[in-house]
């Protein structure tokens, strides 16, 4: 069998999202597919761009900013990986949404650099819903709410919602509980009407489990392997 092209994989993924939206009574326009292009060469991103992708996800600051310089400026770049504070300054003004804010110190750095550049940076608070220690991993629900409140009070930052990375599982159904918990947490936070906080964005679901995530309310799904194929971490890009 011929291998599918990037265009075909994107179309298939978009069609699947459309089907799940229909089945779960959701408006298709609520869900955006992020093409997770980490480790992949620019030529592959150009193929995805030609097929209509405008949202790309990267997990390293240097790789994101290098690709940003080369590729068209209407791309929305999503930082989805762990972010070090000393790299924040390179990202601000280029990134559309930072999905991975998990501490006040990181948020303070984003705030500082955003104010310096006179921009507002949109962020999501990353929640470890599948943690062992408590329902929300590193955070209890109250700690998440406290972090959201503190981050929202910083200048130059807009809190748009929550993000989670579910565990790797053979059966995606096993992650439904976590997606549901993240959705519920976002509803609870929304009800608190915290200044400068919207909970419109839920970033959850990857190649193996994005269908379940969409049916539980994801607004962004982050799909890498399903679009670009397996990643090879032994070659540099
Ligand atoms: C790599 C990555 C993805 C994409 O994973 P796939 O299984 O290849 O779809 C999604 N989210 C995050 C945070 C990632 O680091």
What would your notes on this structure say?
The chain is of the alpha/beta class and 237 residues long. The chain has a single domain, classed as TIM Barrel, CATH 3.20.20.10. The protein is built from 9 helices and 8 strands. Helix 2 links the parallel strand 1 and strand 2. The longest helix has 18 residues. It is globular and about 50 Å long. 41% of the residues are buried. The model has no long low-confidence stretch (mean pLDDT 94). Bound molecules: pyridoxal-5'-phosphate. Pyridoxal-5'-phosphate binds next to strand 8 and helix 9.
Helix and strand arrangement:
Elements: H1 6-23, E1 32-36, H2 42-50, E2 55-58, H3 61-70, E3 76-79, H4 88-91, E4 97-101, H5 104-117, E5 121-126, H6 141-152, E6 157-163, H7 176-191, E7 197-203, H8 210-215, E8 220-223, H9 225-228
Parallel strand pairs: 1-2, 1-8, 2-3, 3-4, 4-5, 5-6, 6-7
Bound molecules: pyridoxal-5'-phosphate.
The main pleated sheet reads as: 8 strands, parallel
Integer average pLDDT: 94
CATH class descriptor: Alpha Beta
Shape: globular
Query: What is the CATH architecture descriptor?
Result: Alpha-Beta Barrel
| Spatial ordering of strands, largest sheet | 7-6-5-4-3-2-1-8
- Stretches where pLDDT is under 50 for at least 5 consecutive residues are none
Enumerate the distinct ligands: pyridoxal-5'-phosphate
Radius of gyration: 17 Å
The fold-level CATH name is TIM Barrel
The CATH superfamily appears as Alanine racemase
Tell me the strand percentage band.
15-25%
Number of domains: 1
Count the DSSP helices.
9
The helix/strand order is: HEHEHEHEHEHEHEHEH
